[in-house]
Specification:
six-stranded mixed β-sheet, 9 helices, alpha+beta, four-stranded antiparallel β-sheet, elongated
Length: about 500
């Protein structure tokens, strides 16, 4: 058996935990007449009254703990369900406070007669009673079925927050009337008087019978949340992993940047800060996006966790009436979460794909272009230009090439990673590649061979989109002859070269 001092320490730790659970998030004091919002968050009655807002004759409360808005009925805050599930915590708090104040021993006067020290605890009445009152309990037929336990057992249960009582729920409209009926139509607990006066044409049944039916309904509604919670938890783990990878990658790249800059000595010293700034901007944007996604996921996680915890705790420890009292809100909250769940939260919105390419520093000095987000995607790169498919021999031909990443964004790529060649049969003419601006390059060549050739443009050894491109090379020394096409009734410009004729349309003036 624990020493009183040890019991007092355990009770004090548990008391702090219980007090935290019974603290209103608005006033930061112990709950006073706590009420439950449909989102399952609990606040004091008077705090909720102060939080009521009005818009176009509609009264509503925006939950201080989540984005959910609750529209009130004509009963106002009074129409919200009372937090019956917290009653046992108030009793645990009371027992723990008395245990701590008495040095580890629960010393309590009988709450029935008040004359002698209590030796037992009636779970149904929720009161500490003496031996004489225990005998009275057992003699009276109405009280004979109450569960009575020893005062020390209660103290141990309170220290472990295991004190679950069968306290009778009473109607707030009819004094001392037990809420022993459940209106299936309104989904709320009612007493016999409420049933007769306000719910006479509704489907009402005893709490025990309704609980047996509705338990499965609640479980069926809540169970899918487990899979979503697991997915959101995994998404948060992935977000953390990506954030850590980005930070780790940033540290590695920082070292690479610093090392490269130092090797180039004073000429490149001024570029170090520019690269680091670019790197931090890129990674901070990524981290900010992940942080925003994580924040949104944590809100969903809190909703899922809170709803699951609330529902499972009530199904495990609550009375039939407590469970039924919460059924409407639990099912509504579950449907709202399932409806509003953004599946994009399950996939990290950014990843560790920042690259510092130190190769370009060995070739030239171009500020801000060594740190970029991702690698080039050849199939996203495009070639354009008037002479892409048609040119002439001995003519300087230029083709523009735009380098893009996998997301279609323009990125820098070292010139030596881009190659181009004009191919005719087994012979190839290597083209010159030069950089004109960020992500823009020019391929230029001069050929002396007419005919149909193919222009191969590659990035890192892979063809860009459309490559190889067919190129028709005209001979400037070809003989021109105008012929008449009787079928089409227009002129054709016929080019003769080495005995071969190639036709192309000529405009009729």
């Amino acid at each position: 058996m624990l020493e009183p001092a040890t019991q007092s320490e355990c009770a004090l730790d548990t008391l702090r935990e219980v007090t935290e659970q019974l603290t209103c998030a608005i006033c930061l004091r112990c709950y006073a007449d706590p009420r439950v919002l449909p989102c399952l968050h609990v606040f004091c009655f008077h705090c909720l009254e102060e939080a009521v807002r009005r818009k176009n004759d509609v009264y509503y409360i925006r939950c201080p703990s989540c984005p959910r808005v609750t529209y009130l009925t004509d009963d106002g805050v009074g129409g919200l369900v009372a937090a019956f599930h917290l009653h046992h915590l108030f009793d645990i708090q009371d027992i723990l406070q008395k245990t701590v104040s008495n040095g580890g021993e629960l010393v309590q006067e009988c709450e029935k007669c008040g004359d002698t020290q209590a030796t037992s605890f009636c779970r149904d009445c929720g009161q500490c009673v003496c031996d004489q009152c225990v005998n009275t309990h057992r003699k009276w037929s109405e009280l004979a079925g109450h569960e009575i336990v020893g005062i020390r057992d209660v103290q141990k249960e309170a220290a472990g927050m295991l004190l679950f009582k069968k306290k009778t729920l009473l109607c707030s409209k009819h004094t001392n009337r037990e809420l022993d009926m459940y209106c299936e139509t309104c989904e709320e607990l009612v007493c016999r008087c409420c049933q007769a006066q306000l719910h006479s044409d509704h489907h009402c049944d005893l709490v025990a019978s309704s609980f047996a039916r509705n338990r499965q309904v609640i479980e069926a509604k809540v169970n899918p949340l487990k899979a979503h919670l697991e997915a959101v938890n995994q998404a948060l783990i992935n977000a953390d992993a990506n954030a850590n990878a980005i930070v780790s990658q940033r540290e590695t790249i920082e070292e690479d940047i610093v090392s490269t800059i130092k090797g180039l000595q004073t000429q490149l010293e001024q570029m170090k800060g520019q690269f680091l700034t670019t790197l931090h901007k890129i990674t901070e944007r990524k981290l900010e996006r992940l942080a925003l996604q994580k924040e949104a996921a944590e809100v969903v996680q809190a909703q899922l966790t809170g709803t699951l915890h609330f529902a499972e705790e009530r199904l495990l420890a609550g009375t039939d009436g407590e469970v039924l009292a919460m059924k409407k809100y639990v099912t509504a909250q579950t449907e709202a979460i399932m409806r509003d769940l953004d599946h994009d939260l399950l996939v990290p919105c950014d990843r560790a794909n920042v690259v510092f390419d130190s190769r370009f520093l060995r070739d030239r000095i171009i500020p801000h272009e060594a740190v970029y987000t991702t690698r080039v995607c050849p199939m996203k790169c495009v070639a354009t230009g008037e002479n892409l498919h048609l040119t002439s021999v001995m003519e300087t031909t230029k083709v523009n090439v735009l380098i893009k990443d996998e997301f279609g964004e323009n990125i820098f790529e070292p010139v030596d990673s881009i190659t181009a060649e004009l191919v005719l049969n087994d012979s190839a003419l290597y083209c010159n590649v030069s950089k004109t601006s960020l992500a823009r390059y020019t391929v230029s060549y001069v050929t002396t061979i007419p005919g149909i050739q193919r222009l191969h443009i590659r990035v890192n050894g892979q063809h860009i989109k459309g490559s190889p491109f067919p190129v028709r090379v005209k001979d400037i020394e070809a003989t021109h002859k105008v012929a008449y096409d009787a079928d089409s009734m227009d002129l054709n410009l016929v080019l003769y070269h080495n005995g071969d004729a190639n036709e192309e349309r000529a405009e009729i003036f």
